[in-house]
Every structure is written in C-alpha cells, then in structure tokens.
Amino acid sequence: MKVGGKHYRTIWPGEDGTSVEIIDQTRLPHEFVTLRLRTVDDAVRAIQTMQVRGAPLIGATAAYGLWLALRVDASDDSLVRAYQILLASRPTAINLRWALDRVRARVRPLLPSARVQAAFEESGVLCDDDVATCEAIGRNGLKLFKQIATKKGTVEVLTHCNAGWLACVDWGTALAPIYMAHDAGLGVHVWVDETRPRNQGASLTAWELGRHGVPHTVIADNVGGHLMQHGQVDLCIVGTDRTTARGDVCNKIGTYLKALAAHDNRVPFYVALPHSTIDWTIQDGVAEIPIEERPGHELTRITGRDDDGGLTTVQIVPDGTPAANFAFDVTPARLVTGLITERGVCQASEEGLLSLYPERRGKAA
Ligand code: MRU
User: What is the pTM of this model?
Assistant: First the structure.
C-alpha cells in the first residue's frame, strides 16, 4: 500500500543486508516512523511491544528474527534458542509458530554455513506468499460485496481491530476485500470499532482506510449492536489470530460480542484468514487457545495527541485501580457465517475447511 505516494510493505530487508526494517506501529496514526531490527532481541521486542502486530506480520517478523539470530551464530543450539524465544514472544497468533516452523524446516537440514542465506530467502518467500494470499482473500471477499451492492447502493461493513495491510505484509485479510470493492468502484462505508484498549481500530484501521480514501467512521466499541438493530450494517468482516480445525476463531477482544449481536440481528458475520492462521491441531477454541493477558497499564492509561500537537499519555482510572487486560476472545463457529480464505469462502466447520484444504483430510492433527 502507498504512504505519501511511496509503496510500502510492513516489513522489508534493510539495504545494508544485515537488518530488517519495519513501520513502528506504536507511533501511528500520529507519526510514520520506520525502524531497523538488527538482532533477534530487536525482533522479540518489536513483537512484544507491538511495534509490529497482527497475526501474519508477527509471523513474518519472527521468520526474519530467526535469520537475525543465525547471522550471529548458525549452530543447532542457536537455532533452538532463537526459535524458543521468538515463539514465546506472543502466545495467541498461531502464524508465529507456523512461520518459525517453516524457516526452521528449511534451514535445519543444512550445514551452518548455508543456513543464514537460506533463512533470509525463506523469510522473503514467506512475505511474498503472504502478499499473494491476502490478495486472493481480497478477490474472494469481493464477490460478497458485489452481491450486496447489486441489491442496494453503498455496502455498510463493520470491522473490529485492525486486519488491514498493517497487520499483514500487504493488503490485509479483512480489509483486502474492502480495498478491492472500493477500487472496483462499489460504494463502501466502513464502521471502524475503536478496539480498546490498544485502539487498533481508531489508530490503525482508520489511518489505513483514510490513506486509501475509503469512507469510514470510527465508533466506540459498544455501538455495533445498536447499528445492527437499526439496519445500518450489511455485513461484518474481521480477521483471526487462530482458527481451529472446526472453525472457531480467536480474534481481538470484543469480536465475540460483535458476532453475538450480528447473530441476533441476522447480519452476516465473516472472518477473513490465510491458511497460516489455521491451527489444525485443535478443535475447541474456548478450551484450547491460550488467551494473551497484557499489562494493565494498556487499559488504565491512554495516549493521544494533545492540542499543542504533542503526544501525551494520561491515566483514566482512579489511582491503584486493578485492571484485567485480556487481549483476545473466541467466537464459536456457530456464530460465523463464513470463512473467507485464499482458496475461497467456506462454512465455518471442519467439513467447510476440509473442502478448501482437502490435503488435510485424514491427516493426524
Ligand atoms: O493484538 P494485535 O494487534 O496483534 O491483534 C491483531 C488482531 O486481532 C487482528 O485483527 C488479527 O491479527 C487478524 S489478522 C490480520
């Protein structure tokens, strides 16, 4: 996607050949700043502090993180150590493990002398694949927009969190069909949930959509149900950080409540995902997906631009108030109208997923 007329991905190899560059997402929407990751610890920190975030981008950063570790020491021990600290950096998005497994599988059989180049190449291919995958998700989701647009003018879509290009390498998952619908000349308007406590909707989704010229309106997280009751939402599309083999989806906290409201109001609720988000080893998302708990200060304090243009952080609760900051929740498959993948749209069920990924049929989890 373009920023200031220049095409950016969210992660790319540094020109010095020894680093990888990212957009520091903690500075958006107020400042566009890029950062250089030079070590595996830089990559871990970027993931943990959410300078990079979003399931596919977390995976891509971890892949390059392995490369950064191997540049210093390409031994078996170093590979094991780097794999483990990267894997532990955030618990919920399965793309992290998927990406690490992919790079490790490529480099482990090689002699240490060949590992650095192989890890670099594999990370690059993984990023290119992610772009192609998200583009295909966009094309498949576009068909839903076309169907709605033929019945009425502007398609009103609600999204939660940020599942746009900033969460991936480019395009995005949930936002890819929105960009394509807008580019195809369909009328689209997006209701953007602010997505407390980190405000990925207000800060990132609104920023992305604004840069691309897609009409949108930020709403407080509690507004969606009201809009659905009043016929102001044609469909919801969200992303997912982990999808179980039976189609339960784990996404940013608050997604479940939107799915309940959509179900009650017969509003289609779609989830857009790449294959790398499917965890074929588990079935029951509520019981089996580890839900990240983040520091309470993300909830009790808020940062924004003050009237003088500077960034300010303020406390918004009484001194000493305890806070619980659960970062994700699980939406059971029964509340999901369909899964939009790079291979097509399917029912949120084991059979639905297997119809698109038949190579998984009969495979042990
Ligand atoms: O905590 P985050 O910002 O990494 O959470 C991101 C989300 O929940 C996204 O909606 C999700 O990764 C979907 S993937 C594009």
Answer: 0.97
